[in-house]
Design a protein that fits this description.
Layout (H helix, E strand, L loop, with lengths): L8 E6 L5 E7 L10 E6 L5 H15 L4 E4 L10 H6 L5 H12 L3 E4 L9 H18 L6 H15 L5 E2 L9 E2 L1 H6 L21 H25 L16 E4 L11 E9 L5 E8 L2 E6 L3 E3 L4 H8 L1
Parallel strand pairs: 1-4, 4-5
Antiparallel strand pairs: 1-2, 2-3, 6-7, 8-9, 8-12, 9-10, 10-11
Helix pairs in contact: 1-3, 4-7, 5-7
Protein backbone atom coordinates (compact mmCIF):
# COMPACT_ATOMS: atom_id res chain seq x y z
CA UNK A 1 0.00 0.00 0.00
CA UNK A 2 1.41 3.39 -1.00
CA UNK A 3 0.23 7.01 -0.88
CA UNK A 4 -1.75 8.23 -3.89
CA UNK A 5 -3.48 11.39 -5.00
CA UNK A 6 -7.21 11.79 -4.47
CA UNK A 7 -7.75 11.61 -8.23
CA UNK A 8 -5.92 8.33 -8.82
CA UNK A 9 -9.20 6.47 -9.19
CA UNK A 10 -11.98 8.66 -10.55
CA UNK A 11 -15.45 8.38 -11.99
CA UNK A 12 -17.09 10.59 -14.60
CA UNK A 13 -20.71 11.53 -15.15
CA UNK A 14 -21.93 13.87 -17.86
CA UNK A 15 -25.03 15.93 -17.16
CA UNK A 16 -27.66 15.94 -19.91
CA UNK A 17 -27.57 19.74 -19.93
CA UNK A 18 -24.94 20.60 -22.58
CA UNK A 19 -23.00 22.93 -20.30
CA UNK A 20 -21.58 20.72 -17.59
CA UNK A 21 -19.47 17.65 -17.01
CA UNK A 22 -19.08 16.24 -13.54
CA UNK A 23 -15.97 14.37 -12.44
CA UNK A 24 -16.24 12.68 -9.06
CA UNK A 25 -12.94 11.64 -7.51
CA UNK A 26 -12.39 8.89 -4.96
CA UNK A 27 -9.47 8.45 -2.63
CA UNK A 28 -8.42 5.41 -0.66
CA UNK A 29 -6.71 5.71 2.72
CA UNK A 30 -6.17 2.00 3.42
CA UNK A 31 -9.68 1.30 4.72
CA UNK A 32 -13.14 1.84 3.35
CA UNK A 33 -13.41 5.48 4.35
CA UNK A 34 -14.67 7.13 1.17
CA UNK A 35 -14.30 10.90 0.96
CA UNK A 36 -16.01 11.01 -2.45
CA UNK A 37 -14.57 14.40 -3.38
CA UNK A 38 -16.27 16.12 -6.31
CA UNK A 39 -14.68 18.05 -9.16
CA UNK A 40 -16.90 20.04 -11.55
CA UNK A 41 -16.06 21.21 -15.06
CA UNK A 42 -18.04 23.10 -17.69
CA UNK A 43 -18.04 22.01 -21.34
CA UNK A 44 -19.65 23.69 -24.32
CA UNK A 45 -20.75 20.54 -26.19
CA UNK A 46 -20.61 16.72 -26.21
CA UNK A 47 -17.66 16.29 -28.57
CA UNK A 48 -14.56 14.27 -27.75
CA UNK A 49 -12.50 17.46 -27.89
CA UNK A 50 -14.66 19.12 -25.23
CA UNK A 51 -14.47 16.04 -22.99
CA UNK A 52 -10.69 15.78 -23.35
CA UNK A 53 -10.30 19.50 -22.68
CA UNK A 54 -12.30 19.10 -19.45
CA UNK A 55 -10.20 16.06 -18.56
CA UNK A 56 -6.98 18.03 -19.10
CA UNK A 57 -8.24 20.78 -16.78
CA UNK A 58 -9.19 18.14 -14.22
CA UNK A 59 -5.76 16.47 -14.37
CA UNK A 60 -4.01 19.84 -14.16
CA UNK A 61 -5.91 20.65 -10.96
CA UNK A 62 -6.05 17.22 -9.28
CA UNK A 63 -3.20 15.20 -10.75
CA UNK A 64 -3.07 12.33 -13.23
CA UNK A 65 -5.63 9.59 -12.60
CA UNK A 66 -5.10 5.93 -13.51
CA UNK A 67 -8.66 4.69 -13.76
CA UNK A 68 -11.88 6.45 -14.79
CA UNK A 69 -15.26 4.78 -14.24
CA UNK A 70 -18.46 5.90 -15.95
CA UNK A 71 -21.80 4.72 -17.24
CA UNK A 72 -22.06 3.37 -20.76
CA UNK A 73 -24.29 5.03 -23.32
CA UNK A 74 -27.46 3.02 -22.66
CA UNK A 75 -27.52 4.23 -19.07
CA UNK A 76 -28.21 7.80 -20.22
CA UNK A 77 -31.89 7.08 -20.79
CA UNK A 78 -33.08 10.67 -20.88
CA UNK A 79 -29.94 12.21 -22.27
CA UNK A 80 -29.43 13.90 -25.58
CA UNK A 81 -28.66 11.60 -28.53
CA UNK A 82 -25.27 13.21 -29.00
CA UNK A 83 -24.41 12.53 -25.36
CA UNK A 84 -25.43 8.87 -25.70
CA UNK A 85 -23.37 8.59 -28.88
CA UNK A 86 -20.30 9.86 -27.05
CA UNK A 87 -20.41 6.86 -24.70
CA UNK A 88 -21.67 4.20 -27.10
CA UNK A 89 -19.34 1.23 -27.63
CA UNK A 90 -19.07 1.71 -31.38
CA UNK A 91 -18.79 5.48 -31.20
CA UNK A 92 -15.75 6.94 -33.02
CA UNK A 93 -15.78 9.74 -30.43
CA UNK A 94 -15.35 7.17 -27.66
CA UNK A 95 -12.53 5.45 -29.54
CA UNK A 96 -10.72 8.77 -29.89
CA UNK A 97 -11.12 9.47 -26.17
CA UNK A 98 -9.94 5.99 -25.15
CA UNK A 99 -6.98 6.29 -27.51
CA UNK A 100 -5.93 9.58 -25.93
CA UNK A 101 -6.39 8.16 -22.43
CA UNK A 102 -4.32 5.10 -23.32
CA UNK A 103 -1.52 7.37 -24.48
CA UNK A 104 -1.60 8.98 -21.02
CA UNK A 105 -1.71 5.53 -19.34
CA UNK A 106 -5.29 6.11 -18.13
CA UNK A 107 -7.77 3.23 -18.20
CA UNK A 108 -11.43 4.05 -18.86
CA UNK A 109 -13.88 1.47 -17.52
CA UNK A 110 -17.61 1.33 -18.14
CA UNK A 111 -20.44 -0.14 -16.11
CA UNK A 112 -22.45 -2.86 -17.90
CA UNK A 113 -25.52 -1.69 -19.83
CA UNK A 114 -28.65 -0.95 -17.77
CA UNK A 115 -26.71 -0.88 -14.49
CA UNK A 116 -26.43 2.79 -13.49
CA UNK A 117 -26.83 1.69 -9.85
CA UNK A 118 -23.28 0.27 -9.94
CA UNK A 119 -21.99 3.84 -9.89
CA UNK A 120 -23.70 4.52 -6.59
CA UNK A 121 -20.98 6.73 -5.12
CA UNK A 122 -20.73 9.23 -7.95
CA UNK A 123 -24.41 8.92 -8.90
CA UNK A 124 -25.39 9.96 -5.37
CA UNK A 125 -23.11 13.00 -5.53
CA UNK A 126 -24.42 14.01 -8.96
CA UNK A 127 -28.06 13.45 -7.97
CA UNK A 128 -27.73 15.69 -4.92
CA UNK A 129 -25.93 18.34 -6.95
CA UNK A 130 -28.40 18.40 -9.84
CA UNK A 131 -31.46 18.35 -7.57
CA UNK A 132 -30.48 21.64 -5.97
CA UNK A 133 -28.43 23.30 -8.71
CA UNK A 134 -31.14 23.32 -11.36
CA UNK A 135 -33.65 24.69 -8.85
CA UNK A 136 -31.21 27.43 -7.95
CA UNK A 137 -30.49 28.28 -11.59
CA UNK A 138 -34.12 28.25 -12.67
CA UNK A 139 -34.42 29.88 -16.09
CA UNK A 140 -31.29 32.00 -15.65
CA UNK A 141 -28.88 32.15 -18.59
CA UNK A 142 -25.23 32.23 -17.59
CA UNK A 143 -22.11 32.79 -19.63
CA UNK A 144 -19.36 30.17 -19.70
CA UNK A 145 -17.32 32.24 -17.25
CA UNK A 146 -20.27 32.72 -14.89
CA UNK A 147 -21.16 29.03 -14.95
CA UNK A 148 -17.54 28.06 -14.28
CA UNK A 149 -17.39 30.44 -11.33
CA UNK A 150 -20.65 29.18 -9.85
CA UNK A 151 -19.70 25.51 -10.21
CA UNK A 152 -16.29 26.09 -8.63
CA UNK A 153 -17.97 27.65 -5.60
CA UNK A 154 -20.53 24.84 -5.46
CA UNK A 155 -17.66 22.34 -5.65
CA UNK A 156 -16.05 23.96 -2.60
CA UNK A 157 -19.33 23.63 -0.70
CA UNK A 158 -19.60 19.92 -1.53
CA UNK A 159 -15.99 19.21 -0.59
CA UNK A 160 -16.20 21.10 2.71
CA UNK A 161 -18.64 18.67 4.34
CA UNK A 162 -17.35 16.96 7.50
CA UNK A 163 -16.94 13.19 7.20
CA UNK A 164 -15.66 12.16 10.61
CA UNK A 165 -13.67 13.44 13.57
CA UNK A 166 -9.94 13.72 12.91
CA UNK A 167 -9.21 12.38 16.39
CA UNK A 168 -10.81 11.60 19.75
CA UNK A 169 -8.75 14.33 21.45
CA UNK A 170 -11.24 16.44 23.50
CA UNK A 171 -9.26 19.57 22.57
CA UNK A 172 -9.43 18.91 18.82
CA UNK A 173 -12.44 20.48 17.10
CA UNK A 174 -11.35 19.55 13.57
CA UNK A 175 -13.15 17.16 11.24
CA UNK A 176 -11.90 15.28 8.19
CA UNK A 177 -13.36 16.59 4.92
CA UNK A 178 -12.94 15.75 1.22
CA UNK A 179 -10.94 18.97 1.01
CA UNK A 180 -8.17 17.37 3.10
CA UNK A 181 -7.63 14.83 0.31
CA UNK A 182 -7.55 17.55 -2.36
CA UNK A 183 -5.59 20.43 -0.83
CA UNK A 184 -4.48 19.05 2.53
CA UNK A 185 -6.73 21.29 4.63
CA UNK A 186 -10.30 22.47 5.09
CA UNK A 187 -11.77 24.33 2.11
CA UNK A 188 -12.97 27.83 2.96
CA UNK A 189 -14.80 30.60 1.15
CA UNK A 190 -14.16 34.34 1.13
CA UNK A 191 -16.41 35.85 3.87
CA UNK A 192 -19.30 37.68 2.24
CA UNK A 193 -22.65 38.95 3.41
CA UNK A 194 -25.56 36.76 2.36
CA UNK A 195 -27.68 38.18 -0.46
CA UNK A 196 -30.61 35.78 -0.05
CA UNK A 197 -32.81 38.53 1.39
CA UNK A 198 -32.03 40.93 -1.46
CA UNK A 199 -34.41 41.14 -4.45
CA UNK A 200 -32.72 39.65 -7.54
CA UNK A 201 -33.67 42.65 -9.68
CA UNK A 202 -31.57 44.89 -7.43
CA UNK A 203 -28.38 42.87 -7.86
CA UNK A 204 -25.56 42.95 -10.40
CA UNK A 205 -24.67 39.85 -12.44
CA UNK A 206 -21.88 38.82 -10.06
CA UNK A 207 -24.07 39.46 -7.05
CA UNK A 208 -26.65 37.17 -8.64
CA UNK A 209 -23.99 34.45 -8.83
CA UNK A 210 -23.23 34.94 -5.15
CA UNK A 211 -26.94 34.73 -4.37
CA UNK A 212 -27.18 31.47 -6.35
CA UNK A 213 -24.22 30.07 -4.41
CA UNK A 214 -25.83 31.08 -1.11
CA UNK A 215 -29.14 29.55 -2.19
CA UNK A 216 -27.47 26.28 -3.16
CA UNK A 217 -25.59 26.17 0.15
CA UNK A 218 -28.77 26.78 2.14
CA UNK A 219 -30.63 23.96 0.36
CA UNK A 220 -27.84 21.41 0.12
CA UNK A 221 -26.38 21.84 3.64
CA UNK A 222 -29.82 21.30 5.18
CA UNK A 223 -30.22 18.11 3.15
CA UNK A 224 -26.79 16.85 4.22
CA UNK A 225 -27.50 17.51 7.91
CA UNK A 226 -30.84 15.78 7.56
CA UNK A 227 -29.16 12.71 6.05
CA UNK A 228 -26.74 12.52 8.99
CA UNK A 229 -29.57 12.43 11.54
CA UNK A 230 -31.09 9.33 9.90
CA UNK A 231 -28.00 7.16 10.09
CA UNK A 232 -28.08 3.82 11.97
CA UNK A 233 -26.14 5.21 14.93
CA UNK A 234 -29.28 7.09 15.99
CA UNK A 235 -31.60 4.10 15.66
CA UNK A 236 -29.87 2.09 18.39
CA UNK A 237 -30.95 2.17 22.02
CA UNK A 238 -28.02 4.13 23.41
CA UNK A 239 -27.47 7.70 24.49
CA UNK A 240 -24.68 8.41 22.03
CA UNK A 241 -24.03 11.69 23.85
CA UNK A 242 -20.67 11.07 25.47
CA UNK A 243 -18.43 13.71 26.96
CA UNK A 244 -15.60 14.50 24.57
CA UNK A 245 -17.37 13.39 21.37
CA UNK A 246 -17.35 15.67 18.32
CA UNK A 247 -20.69 16.91 17.01
CA UNK A 248 -22.02 19.16 14.32
CA UNK A 249 -24.14 22.01 15.65
CA UNK A 250 -27.33 22.62 13.70
CA UNK A 251 -27.46 26.38 13.17
CA UNK A 252 -29.38 28.65 10.84
CA UNK A 253 -27.71 30.97 8.34
CA UNK A 254 -24.20 29.52 8.51
CA UNK A 255 -21.89 30.91 5.78
CA UNK A 256 -20.94 28.63 2.86
CA UNK A 257 -18.30 25.97 3.69
CA UNK A 258 -18.68 26.67 7.43
CA UNK A 259 -19.75 23.75 9.64
CA UNK A 260 -20.02 24.61 13.37
CA UNK A 261 -18.31 21.84 15.38
CA UNK A 262 -18.32 21.29 19.13
CA UNK A 263 -17.29 18.83 21.84
CA UNK A 264 -19.57 17.84 24.71
CA UNK A 265 -18.08 18.85 28.06
CA UNK A 266 -21.05 18.02 30.32
CA UNK A 267 -24.36 16.19 30.06
CA UNK A 268 -27.50 17.06 32.01
CA UNK A 269 -29.67 13.94 32.39
CA UNK A 270 -33.28 14.15 33.54
CA UNK A 271 -34.68 12.24 36.49
CA UNK A 272 -35.47 9.29 34.22
CA UNK A 273 -31.87 9.20 33.00
CA UNK A 274 -32.60 10.54 29.51
CA UNK A 275 -30.27 13.24 28.21
CA UNK A 276 -31.99 16.17 26.54
CA UNK A 277 -29.56 19.01 27.23
CA UNK A 278 -25.75 19.15 27.13
CA UNK A 279 -23.02 21.72 27.55
CA UNK A 280 -20.72 21.98 24.54
CA UNK A 281 -17.45 23.75 23.87
CA UNK A 282 -17.20 25.78 20.68
CA UNK A 283 -13.72 27.31 20.28
CA UNK A 284 -12.94 28.80 23.72
CA UNK A 285 -16.55 29.23 24.88
CA UNK A 286 -19.13 26.91 26.41
CA UNK A 287 -22.83 26.87 25.56
CA UNK A 288 -25.88 24.87 26.63
CA UNK A 289 -27.66 23.20 23.73
CA UNK A 290 -30.54 20.72 23.33
CA UNK A 291 -29.51 17.40 21.84
CA UNK A 292 -31.82 17.96 18.86
CA UNK A 293 -29.31 20.58 17.72
CA UNK A 294 -26.42 18.10 17.79
CA UNK A 295 -25.45 15.75 14.98
CA UNK A 296 -22.94 13.02 15.79
CA UNK A 297 -19.81 12.65 13.66
CA UNK A 298 -18.08 9.23 13.50
CA UNK A 299 -14.67 8.91 15.15
CA UNK A 300 -13.23 5.77 13.52
CA UNK A 301 -13.35 4.08 10.12
CA UNK A 302 -15.54 1.41 11.73
CA UNK A 303 -18.09 4.08 12.57
CA UNK A 304 -17.95 5.37 9.01
CA UNK A 305 -18.56 1.88 7.61
CA UNK A 306 -21.50 1.53 10.01
CA UNK A 307 -23.09 4.76 8.80
CA UNK A 308 -22.62 3.73 5.16
CA UNK A 309 -24.18 0.28 5.69
Amino acid sequence: MSPASAARRSSADVEDNPTTILDSTRSYTGKETDPAAVHLEVVSDYTAEAFLAALKRFVSHRGLCRTIWSDCGTNFVDADAQLRALFTVSSPERRRIIGQLAADNIQWRFNPPSTPHLGGIWEAAVKSLKHHLWRVLGDATLTFEEMSTLLTQVEACLNSRPLQALSDDPEDLAALTPGHFLVGSVLTAVPELSLLDHPPNRLTRWQLLQRMRDHFWERWSKEYLHSLTHRPKWLKKETGFDVGRLYLIRQENTPPTRWPLARIVRVHPREDGQICVVTVRIAASEFTRPIVKLILLPVSDADVEETQA
